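Let's study today's protein:

:::
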Amino acid sequence: MSAVTDVSPAETAGQLQRTIDWRGAFWVASGVPPLVLFSIGGIAGTTGNIAFLIWTLSIIMGFIQSFTYAEIAGLFPNKSGGASVYGATAWLRYSKFIAPLSVWCNWFAWTPVLSLGCTIAAAYILNALAPIPGFTETSPEVLQYLAANVGTSAADAVAAVTAAATPGIRTWTLYSHTLGPVGFSLNATFWIGAILMLMTFAIQHRGILGTASVQKVVGLLVIVPLLVVGVVPILTGQINWDNYSPLVPLAAAYAPEPGSWNTAGWTLALGGMFIAAWSTYGFETAVCYTREFKNPATDTFKAIFYSGLLCMLLYILVPFTFQGVLGINGMLATPIVDGSGVADAMASMVGGGGLVKTLLVMLMILALLLAIMTAMAGSSRTLYQGSVDGWLPKYLSHVNEHGAPTRAMWTDLIFNLCLLAIASTDATSFFFILAVANCGYIIFNFLNLNAGWIHRIDNGHIHRPWKAPTWLLAAGTIFAFVNAVFMGAGAKVWNPMALWAGLFTVALIIPVFCFRHYIQDGGKFPAHMLDDLGMHESDLRKRKAGILPYVTLIAGLAVVLIANWFFVL
């Protein structure tokens, strides 16, 4: 059976529905560009003047890699879930246990967007409703405190007065505790974030067509201001070209002194490339909706290509402008690093007053909700298709009357409420979650970029609606190992335990898969899993690629471990 023969099966209850074209997927994926705001301060804080270059190189890599995903997505017109599902099928011939890693790693890489985005959005809402007052050494309240407390330093007086005037909701928590390298807290940020998650769930409950319609409106409200902020400072001459030199990394993270291209400097640079990948590669989510395209043969490539072009523009322009206007000292400010002051910075770039600032705060919240909706739409479909194909527990296969995978969405929601309690604690916990999630994302990319050439060898006879030039497929394979260097060297920049915590999280798929495959399914995959390739389970014994996939896995692991050993701070 050809890979494009059965693209219009009768739509029945309990199935995803073909209701969108590539434009719908484009708007659903439009939540990816705002991800630049998650870590623009963090990357500047760890890399310094080369931050704009980090973003540029990362999005170029992501764009080149996307052509591999566009090709393999075309092989599966009747599957959702994105490149992780399509790539898992390539690895299935070589190991039952390697294949589900692709699906699992993609899911736990994408799903934290919900909790991290809600954390930042909640911070904006708190800043608007209960702002922390700002005092200086000459403020009347501080002078009065100094007079009443002779011998107190001015800095201590400012801190004391600020603490006394801070609204109680900013420090209130129902419960908090320390959990290993991070903490968790049921504070105001958590509860506001939880409400935002439930709002997102309600929108997603209407199915992909309703989601795409909402995201088209929100996407325009977000993308246009991002473009304005990226262009206006250049046209008005606000760019200070000295802010891009010297072109060296920092001597130490979050300190403004320039360093050099020594081992520590390269480690910080690779740490920046590591965390940037989590944002810049994300538009591959545009191929998550193949099963819901009206015409997957043409919609799949257009969706990822045009999403990639949008991301290329914004991921190059916005970091360049931020750095050119703010400089390294401005980028290292705490409100930029934690994301809560990005709207203020954007308002100053376009010369706006209080009204413009208020509008930008609202748009920032919309931008974060856009990213959250994109993440829930993509990650829930990864869970759904992983269940349908026999990788994950059966209960995730359910969809509602609108074709929305609601049980997968509830799983996303509950998991992210736990992450939200951690991310709400402080910036250290926030970036720990981000780094662990990105370990999964790098592994997903490694497996799926190599799945491109494995599919070419094993399934070369299957018709491809769009076929990537061989040199692009080869470039993606090379980048798979470059990404492995980023993970091995760069994860430690964000937390000493991030790499090992990430690998532990990856390993959790083994008992989950064993439960589904051996207990629920009796050691056999669902008969329909290989329908798109016109194969049966017996065909999996034919391994045309020989030992090459195994050599690739060993080489990838070696690259991660060697990079982790060699690159140190």
